[in-house]
């Protein structure tokens, strides 16, 4: 039942303080005064509490259990991060600079830490999400080439066919033509294919490394060299940084622009889809083009530099999703140097353990040592059993687990993309393996139970075809 | 061992054995090792970390809300306790995007209800489930206007929040969109004559703010009358004001966007807030962002799913209506909680008290010789002329615990020394009197 159906005219859940200001006559012209009150809920406080508690109970979450969504890095979100963010909620972005010294210092520290972690020279914390960071990074590239007088000829952004959908979408928004690179047989960038597309019409090559198959681009140093030889820039999609911390840095292996997802690698919660935070680190030659303000170290703290004549401008208001930054900062203080390396070590260990154990029953796409995630290729399984990848995903829900990412990356046709993250124990992984084994057996002995799954969730499979064909966008009385 | 990472030495050994490698390093053979660790401090226990972050927090000044007279896009309002408590449920906080609808009905229904509330406030037919902030929502509305009209020339009121216009420029430049800014008249409203003169067949959209950055209530009827029907009419709205003001949808708006921070969200140094984005059904396929719709499950029970996903980047890639993926869903929850708690009556009281306080404060300031810059009727903000040394005074006021009206001289240079005064329901008789006293000194 929606909250609107629980509404009773005249009921209320709020109480404002007694009003001590004399009331004047309303001077708003009559035609600009609202005639009909908006249909908002009229409920009591306990109604609010029960409605939202009930809604929350219908959600799966990291705090409930295993959430192996590939490329999403659904690690545990530490509680102290939330407490620390709560210390900064009552600051107005236009407060005088001297009254937000601590907040600016925190952003400055965070920037320095993230520059060190990514191997970049300068950074903006302004982008609100990963895709927003991509757009920002590509606009920086655009401004750089414009400044060099090369924008006219550099029209292309090369994107592997295994890339996240945001990569080509961001490139298009930044005004570039997207050229898709066909992956090689080993799932990585094919150097011949790259060579065929690489000339001075290319502005940027966007790579996720490790890529969405969970494979590290082993030719990355060669790729960087090839890119730079034709004057193109190399862009690092940071969705998968959780695999390589403490061993290598994108900036060290040739990347010019690096985006991070603080809501993935740096443990800030996903909040049902956001807020995230997508800082962009760049090498020195791109620093003049970053959005303003840029944080600058001073003798006794940090300052905000608005004087960037070559800047792309701003990509959102104020400083970005500041509270998300506080959480990520808290996490980095907690983990520290060795801790972050341990994160990646255990994330990769977990993924390989799952891969090897599951390979006994399922076909692994590109089956070799993987990084923090891997992909099951279900094509043969679907042909043999009639049970679809989606069915397996839905059946996992019945076992009290969240499903992996399905049907992505697009280059594996019936893909199940699994990223366990480092915060899951062997016990949890074994439980997942057991569920996958059971489903495998059910698919042979009783396929219907899998095809009709889920059976135990608050609701069964939903008709999303009708939902899009004859859309209902809102509640109506 | 770390408290967030559960592996024991014994388990690591067992797992390596299963994988068939000797060491963790063997799993990283493809990765060129470029560092021997980061040059960052080692990790610390939670009690030490807490102290470190608390120390930074203490270096900031937190103003008593009643002493805050700054708005300019971010507002202090009373936030009922229940909002924070319900929003902190970990099944909301730590859930991902609702890709598996059967175990995300809480998220999906909440967002469906949020969309309904935003439609009600704006008078529009469809709302998406959020954008990053008001500025990027405005920028995306211009991109959408180009998709609707096939044209690239925009007329944008100078009275729209300066940061929104800056962000819009960043977003629209690569698409070859040309923005012409329309100035304001002595009432503080958009200059209708200038708007009329600039309208021609090449114009894709006209964008105004309601209420505008100066706090002035634009006459949407008068504006719509000069904007031809085939030109996309974009309104940047302040959602609290909409409890008192007629919904933009009633004046023929095609797209209504804005910042939702004022609906129950703390100021957060400006982020996270939330961009809301609403439109008409006829435009929905051109709309950016996630949309939730109602449907049924295979047993006929009502449920909710993400709809019209073929607009989005994960399906349409470079042809998507936007690259947006992560949004501000958690803030949409806070908006929905706030609106559920306040209801139509509560929101109206908040809007009225904000309006009334601002008008009483304006009177008090005028009695002390401060002149209002614009004659137009305002909601809860207004611009006054201030002495040349006001900026210095503004910093001094902060030392006395008053977050005074923000100086405007840097963003609207032509106004000369002036300040934007804001009042909401959290200000009271005493705090307003104190402000006037300090400002008059």
Descriptive account of the structure:
The complex is a heterodimer of chains A (477) and B (441). With 477 residues, chain A is of the alpha/beta class. Helices cover 35% and strands 11% of the residues of chain A. Chain A is built from 13 helices and twelve strands. In chain A, the strands form three sheets. Chain A has a seven-stranded mixed sheet, with helices on both faces. Chain A has a three-stranded antiparallel sheet with strand order 10-12-11. In chain A, helix 5 (166-173) links the parallel strand 2 and strand 3. In chain A, helix 3 (101-118) runs parallel beside helix 8 (322-358). Chain B folds into two domains: 65-77 and 343-440, Alpha-Beta Complex (Aspartate Aminotransferase, domain 1), CATH 3.90.1150.10; 81-337, 3-Layer(aba) Sandwich (Aspartate Aminotransferase, domain 2), CATH 3.40.640.10. Chain B has 13 helices and twelve strands. In chain B, the strands form three sheets. Chain B has a seven-stranded mixed sheet, sandwiched between helices. The termini of chain B are far apart. At the A-B interface, helix 1, helix 2, helix 3, helix 4 and helix 5 of A face helix 1, helix 2, helix 3, helix 4 and helix 5 of B.
* CATH architecture descriptor name of the largest domain in chain A: 3-Layer(aba) Sandwich
User: Which ranges of chain A are low-confidence, i.e. pLDDT below 50, for 5 or more consecutive residues?
Assistant: none
Measured by DSSP, the beta-strand proportion of chain A falls in 5-15%
Overall spatial form of chain A: globular
Second-tier CATH architecture of the largest domain in chain B: 3-Layer(aba) Sandwich
Sketch the topology of chain B as an H/E string, one letter per element. HHHHHEHEHEHEHEEEEEHHEHEEH
Kindly state the percentage of residues in helix of chain A: 25-40%
- At the fourth level of CATH, the homologous superfamily of the largest domain in chain A is Type I PLP-dependent aspartate aminotransferase-like (Major domain)
Q: Compute the CA-based radius of gyration of chain A.
A: 25 Å
- State the total count of DSSP E strands of chain B: 12
Distance between the termini of chain B: 61 Å
Count of DSSP-assigned helices of chain B: 13
Q: Secondary-structure element order of chain A, as H and E?
A: HHHEHEHEHEHEEEEEHEHHEEHHH
How far is it from the N-terminal to the C-terminal residue of chain A, by CA? 12 Å
The structural domain count of chain A equals: 3
pLDDT < 50 runs, ≥5 residues of chain B: none
């Amino acid at each position: 039942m929606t909250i609107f159906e629980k509404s009773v005219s005249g009921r209320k859940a709020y109480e404002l303080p007694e009003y001590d200001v004399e009331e004047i006559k309303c001077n708003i012209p009559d035609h600009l005064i609202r005639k009909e009150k908006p249909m908002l809920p009229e409920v009591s406080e306990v109604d609010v509490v029960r409605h939202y508690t009930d809604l929350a109970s219908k959600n799966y979450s990291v705090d409930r259990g295993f959430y192996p969504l590939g490329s999403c890095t659904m690690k545990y979100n530490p509680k102290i991060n939330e407490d620390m963010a709560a210390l900064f909620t009552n600051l107005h972005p236009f407060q005088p600079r001297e009254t937000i010294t601590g907040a600016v210092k925190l952003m400055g520290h965070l920037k320095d830490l993230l520059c060190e972690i990514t191997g970049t020279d300068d950074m903006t914390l302004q982008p609100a999400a990963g895709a927003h960071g991509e757009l920002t990074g590509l606009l920086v590239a655009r401004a750089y080439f414009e400044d060099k007088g090369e924008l006219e000829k550099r029209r292309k952004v090369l994107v592997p066919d295994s890339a996240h959908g945001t990569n080509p979408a961001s490139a298009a928004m930044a005004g570039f033509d997207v050229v898709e690179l066909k992956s090689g047989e080993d799932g990585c960038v094919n150097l011949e294919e790259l060579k065929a597309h690489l000339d001075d019409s290319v502005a940027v090559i966007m790579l996720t490394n490790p890529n969405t198959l969970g494979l590290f681009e082993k030719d990355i140093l060669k790729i960087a060299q090839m890119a730079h030889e034709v004057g193109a820039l190399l862009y690092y999609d940071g969705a998968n940084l959780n695999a390589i911390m403490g061993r290598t840095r994108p900036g060290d292996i040739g990347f010019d622009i690096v985006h991070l997802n603080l809501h993935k690698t740096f443990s800030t919660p996903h909040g049902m889809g956001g807020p995230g935070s997508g800082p962009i680190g760049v090498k020195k030659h791109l620093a003049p083009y970053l959005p303003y303000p840029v944080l600058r170290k001073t003798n006794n703290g940090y300052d905000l530099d608005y004087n960037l004549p070559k800047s792309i401008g701003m990509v959102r208001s104020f400083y970005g999703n500041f509270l998300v930054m506080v959480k990520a900062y808290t996490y980095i203080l907690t983990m520290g140097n060795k801790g972050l390396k341990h994160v990646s070590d255990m994330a990769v260990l977990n993924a390989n353990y799952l891969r090897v154990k599951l390979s006994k029953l399922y076909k692994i796409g590109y089956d070799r040592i993987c990084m923090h995630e891997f992909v099951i290729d279900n094509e043969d399984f679907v042909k043999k059993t009639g049970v679809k990848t989606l069915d397996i995903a839905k059946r996992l829900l019945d076992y009290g687990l969240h499903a992996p990412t399905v049907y992505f990356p697009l280059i594996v046709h019936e893909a199940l993309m699994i990223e366990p993250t480092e915060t899951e124990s062997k016990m949890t992984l074994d439980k997942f393996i057991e569920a996958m084994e059971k489903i495998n057996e059910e698919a042979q002995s009783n396929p219907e139970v899998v095809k009709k799954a889920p059976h135990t969730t608050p609701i069964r499979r939903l008709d999303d075809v009708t939902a899009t064909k004859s859309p209902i966008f809102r509640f109506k009385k | 061992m770390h408290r967030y990472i559960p592996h024991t030495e014994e388990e690591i050994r067992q797992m390596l054995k299963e994988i068939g490698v000797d060491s963790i390093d063997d799993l990283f053979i493809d990765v060129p090792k470029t560092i021997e660790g980061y040059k960052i401090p080692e990790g610390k226990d939670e009690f030490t970390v807490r102290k470190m972050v608390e120390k930074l927090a203490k270096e900031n000044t937190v103003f008593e809300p009643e002493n805050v007279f700054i708005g300019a896009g971010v507002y202090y309002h009373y936030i009922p306790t229940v909002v924070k408590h319900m929003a902190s449920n970990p099944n909301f906080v730590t859930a991902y995007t609702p890709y598996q609808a059967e175990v995300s009905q809480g998220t999906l229904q909440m967002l469906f209800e949020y969309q309904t509330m935003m439609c009600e406030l704006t008078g529009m037919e469809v709302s998406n489930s959020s954008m990053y902030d008001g500025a990027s929502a405005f920028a995306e509305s211009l991109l959408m206007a180009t998709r609707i009209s096939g044209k690239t020339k925009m007329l944008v009121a100078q009275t729209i929040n300066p940061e929104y216009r800056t962000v819009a420029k960043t977003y629209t430049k690569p698409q070859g969109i040309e923005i012409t800014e329309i100035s304001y008249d002595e009432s503080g409203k958009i200059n209708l004559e200038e708007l009329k003169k600039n309208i021609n067949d090449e114009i894709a959209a006209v964008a105004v703010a309601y209420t505008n950055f100066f706090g002035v209530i634009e006459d949407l009827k008068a504006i719509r009358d000069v904007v031809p029907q085939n030109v996309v009419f974009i309104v940047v709205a302040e959602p609290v004001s909409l409890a008192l003001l007629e919904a933009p949808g009633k004046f023929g708006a095609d797209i209504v966007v804005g910042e939702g921070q004022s609906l129950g969200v703390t100021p957060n140094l400006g982020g996270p807030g939330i961009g809301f984005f609403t439109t008409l059904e006829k435009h929905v396929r051109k709309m950016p962002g996630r949309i939730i719709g109602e449907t049924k499950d295979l047993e006929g029970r009502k449920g909710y799913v993400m709809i019209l996903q073929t607009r989005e980047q994960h399906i349409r890639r470079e042809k998507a209506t936007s690259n947006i993926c992560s949004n501000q869903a958690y803030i949409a929850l806070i908006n929905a909680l706030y609106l559920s708690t306040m209801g139509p009556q509560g929101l109206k009281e908040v809007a009225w008290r904000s309006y009334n306080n601002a008008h009483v404060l304006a009177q008090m300031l005028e009695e002390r010789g401060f002149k209002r810059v614009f004659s137009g009727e305002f909601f809860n903000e207004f611009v006054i002329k201030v002495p040349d040394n006001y900026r210095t005074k503004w910093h001094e006021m902060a030392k006395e615990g008053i977050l005074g009206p923000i100086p405007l001289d840097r963003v609207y240079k032509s106004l000369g020394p002036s300040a934007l005064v804001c009042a909401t329901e959290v200000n009271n008789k005493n705090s307003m009197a104190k402000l006037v006293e300090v400002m008059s000194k």
